[in-house]
Design goal:
It is built from 13 helices and 13 strands. By secondary structure, the protein is of the alpha+beta class. Among the domains are: 52 residues, Helicase, Ruva Protein, domain 3, CATH 1.10.8; 77 residues, Phosphatidylinositol 3-kinase Catalytic Subunit, Chain A, domain 1 (Ubiquitin-like (UB roll)), CATH 3.10.20.90. The strands form 3 sheets. Strands 1, 2, 5, 6, 7 and 8 form a 6-stranded mixed β-sheet that branches. Helix 1 runs parallel beside helix 3, helix 3 packs across helix 4 and helix 12 crosses helix 13. The longest helix has 107 residues. The radius of gyration is 58 Å and the shape is rod-shaped. The protein starts with 7 loop residues before the first helix and ends with a strand.
Length: 517
């Protein structure tokens, strides 16, 4: 057995469900069918019932579903209950399952069949003649129902596809009546998913039932059995199951007088999720086998149990008046309603716990985000402080380097000037003694300082500049030597003239005029 589909226990459970649904007893054959469909229970059951067991199912349905019409209340071809109902079972009994069970539905032991009497045998021959007479009409009616159901389904699918195509092309209902093309509607038709095989059969059953018995009926769900069971669980209601056998003698009377009566329809719609199926269809035949129906009309009240099982709470077989059916259903609600209350309380507790967890998770996430935000700001602040400190340190280093470079440049400049001053002082030579060829020059500085020196009258004006430079009083400032009376500037054009030629012999008084930049 393929254990990869969910483990040994899950595989054994699926095998037991498959056997209970299909009625197949050979475990090896069942295992091969399940493995061929990847242990998908729905597809395996559908394939087994529709393909491998089609002819066998049809034969069984003819033998088991068409009771001998001996009397309106008795069918000798099927086991018959004296009361027509199964007493409600406790949920603990119904939900009890074990690994050795191979049943999908938990049942009570059934009473043995009641042997027919002489009156029943006499009625049997008359019933056979009636069946032969009405057989063509039954065949034609069944064919019409199937054709109308298929046509209705085809129109529904085609309409969905057309609506989706028009919506994709931008063609839809327009708002407003003005010309020139109005606005497209904001909510476009969306493509509806193709229903499952069980849902298709449910739709066909509902259409056929309405055509036969009118629109006043229970609110049958257009869903497969498992989908309807899931909806009842989610809505905290029991699932009311009706298995429809059109050829049974009691079916028309039960549907018209009981099932479609307004009190029963309203009571079922308000208190139950209602699901019906034709036993001639695949899913109806599967439920006929699973619920072990013995006669028709057949109704059952079920609910979801543990381990993918269903608990059979009540079954009603044979014709029942509206009052009797309502009484049975009311008793089920009273005796088994505690289970729904417990389910609702458990669900509310789960919802509260989930909401509490979500709120705690939201608070934790908010606190985590706040901590992350604070950490981010702290890191950003630390990075900013570090950047500012690094920038300040860099600026300080740059200032220190600039000061060092400026000091070095100033020192180099001062050294150069000192060197130049010494060179110029050496170039002047010794001061000559007083004589007729000696010129006495007085130099006045801007700060009031006066310096005097003797030069040869043949010395150039440049020698006076060299004398001023050798003193070092002006630094690197640019200057000119100027005489007052008459005012005359001894600039660059007179540097090579002798003192005599420049009119400064035998004595001269000059002042230093610092040039502005």
């Amino acid at each position: 057995m393929d254990q990869g589909s969910g483990g040994g226990e899950a595989s054994d459970e699926k095998l037991a469900h498959f056997q209970s649904l299909t009625g197949m007893e050979d475990m090896a054959v069942c295992t091969r069918i399940l493995e061929r469909h990847g242990w998908d229970l729905d597809s395996a059951v559908t394939a087994a019932v529709s393909d491998d067991s089609h002819s066998h199912a049809r034969e069984n349905s003819r033998q088991n579903l068409q009771p001998q019409r001996l009397s309106p209340r008795y069918s000798p071809s099927l086991p018959h209950r004296n009361s027509g109902t199964a007493p409600p079972l406790g949920l603990a009994q119904l939900a009890t399952t074990s690994g050795d069970e191979d049943m999908l539905v938990d049942h009570q032991p059934r009473p043995g069949p009641i042997p027919p009497g002489n009156d029943a045998a006499a009625t049997n021959s008359g019933n056979l003649v009636w069946k032969i007479v009405t057989l063509p009409f039954s065949i034609v009616r069944g064919g019409l129902f199937m054709v109308s159901g298929a046509m209705g389904l085809g129109v529904w699918v085609a309409g969905s596809l057309l609506s989706y195509s028009l919506g994709a092309l931008g063609i839809g209902n327009q708002q407003g009546g003005g010309g020139g093309g109005g606005r497209l509607t904001e909510a476009r038709d969306r493509f509806l998913p193709v229903p499952t095989a069980g849902a298709v059969q449910a739709i066909q059953f509902i259409r056929s039932f309405e055509q036969e018995y009118g629109s006043v009926r229970p609110d049958f769900q257009a869903l497969s059995f498992m989908e309807a069971l899931r909806r009842s669980t989610e809505g905290f209601k029991f699932l009311f199951v009706y298995l429809h056998s059109p050829e049974h003698v009691d079916t028309p009377a039960f549907c018209q007088a009981t099932l479609c009566s307004e009190p029963v329809s309203q009571f079922l719609s308000q208190n139950f999720v209602v699901w019906g199926a034709d036993v001639r269809n695949t899913e109806g035949f599967q439920m006929f086998n699973s619920l072990k129906a013995s006669t028709f009309p057949f109704c059952a009240v079920v609910m979801a149990s543990s381990n993918q099982r269903i608990a059979l709470l009540q079954q009603v077989e044979g014709f029942k008046s509206p009052e009797t059916l309502l009484s049975l259903l009311q008793r089920v609600l009273e005796e088994q309603g505690a289970a729904l209350v417990a389910m609702r309380v458990e669900d509310e507790e789960r919802r509260r716990n989930r909401q509490l967890r979500e709120e705690q998770d939201a608070a934790y996430q908010a606190a985590l985000l706040a901590d992350q935000e604070r950490e981010r700001k702290r890191v950003e602040e630390a990075e900013r402080v570090a950047r500012e400190a690094a920038e300040s340190e860099r600026q300080m280093r740059e200032k220190e380097l600039a000061a060092q470079r400026a000091a070095q440049v100033a020192a180099e400049k001062q050294a150069a000037m000192e060197k130049l001053r010494k060179e110029k002082a050496l170039a002047l030579g010794a001061e000559p003694e007083r004589g007729p060829q000696v010129t006495q020059v007085l130099v006045r500085f801007p700060n009031g300082e006066r310096k005097e020196r003797r030069f040869s009258c043949t010395s150039a004006v440049q020698c006076v500049y060299d004398f001023v430079d050798s003193l070092g009083s002006l630094g690197d400032a640019r200057y000119s030597l100027v005489s007052n009376f008459p005012r005359k500037v001894y600039g660059a054009d007179k540097l090579h003239m002798s003192l005599a030629d420049a009119g400064l012999h035998p004595h001269a008084s000059l002042f230093v005029q610092v040039d502005t930049p």
